[in-house]
Amino acid sequence: MKLPIPRFSLFIGLRYVGARERNLLVAFLSRVSMAGLIVGVGLLVVVLSIMNGFDRELREKILSLLPQASVYHREGIDDWPSLQKRLEAYPHVVAASPFVEVRALVGAANRAEPVAIYGIAPKAERHVSDIAQYLSEQTLAALESSSDKIILGAGIAEKLAVKAGDSVMVIVPDNQNPRAPPSITYVDVAAVLTTQTEVDTKLALMNLEKAQALTLDGQVTGMRLKLDNLFDAHDILWHVIMDLGRGYYGNSWLSTHGNLYHAIHMSKRLVGLLMSLIVGIAAFNVVSTLIMVVVEKQGAIAILRTLGASTREIMAVFIVQGTVIGIVGALLGVLFGVGLSFVVSDLVGLLEQLLSVQFLKSDVYPLTYLPIDIRWQDIAQVVTTAVTLCLLATLYPAWRASRVNPAETLRYE
Hints:
By secondary structure, this protein is an alpha+beta fold.
């Protein structure tokens, strides 16, 4: 079987890669091109890992607590247990749980914060969300058995300067009669919910019956659904609503957080494209390096030509040299990027402590930390792109090398 690259060219090309350059300028440009490739590939790996982390955390954290889909009725829901059984009988619906949504103010020590209070049935809620991962069984049991308990998100608790065991005031306005005095009740904080996501600044949980008592109609607001396929939520919900009949309507996470999800993917593509351009610039620095090598090695090239080396073999020498530079630079860049990905969250946390600044705030960003999700298919794509660009960058210098005239070159040697 004949090799696509002659063994002679492979041997000489590898010799040129490992040889120390006598020309200081050539040696400097070679190191700069290699360093640029390593840094470009490494930063691209880190950026892709961060964007993948945001994608994963949105799906596994935020959407594990907020409804994947919700079903409502224009006149409210009176008999939610029968509707729950009916919903769970539909294909693709894994579980259903009732909730009461109350827009209210929670106050303590002359401070007040607007919150969305969700009245839940903890037993049913375990089947539609991952609430049990963030709250203990004792807390959920206390919430189910007592009507004077509330669970506050960590962001809300921090703004109100309260902790578990403190008492807070819940103020619920009368939406039907704005002039009527609001309903005021006092409850104890059973626990503080910490997810390090935007949920911490918006969510409060209460006993289902207590939340019903805070509303005038005393009905259940809706039923939240857990689906077997998160990304088919719109179609599944549409079929459910059509079958339930008149008066029912609903929304899915695609309506509430779909824009955020698409924004993350769009940002990943755009940032990936920009970082790929940086990798491309670093790869094409190989052009200047190889051209300098061609100029320096003109005498050696002329001797090889007089010994019978063909133009194809001369081109292959420099293609091998540039490709090896690309492979080594890409692999070292991957090692640099993966290593940096493992420590970037800690580095950001340390920088926040040193500067006393929080870069990611939950009231602005969906997460309060940098999530990392290293995907090997992305790394393989980065390496392939970097090596391909380096290979393309070698074509012109290799062609220049093949055009060296032995007679003209050796005349001045």
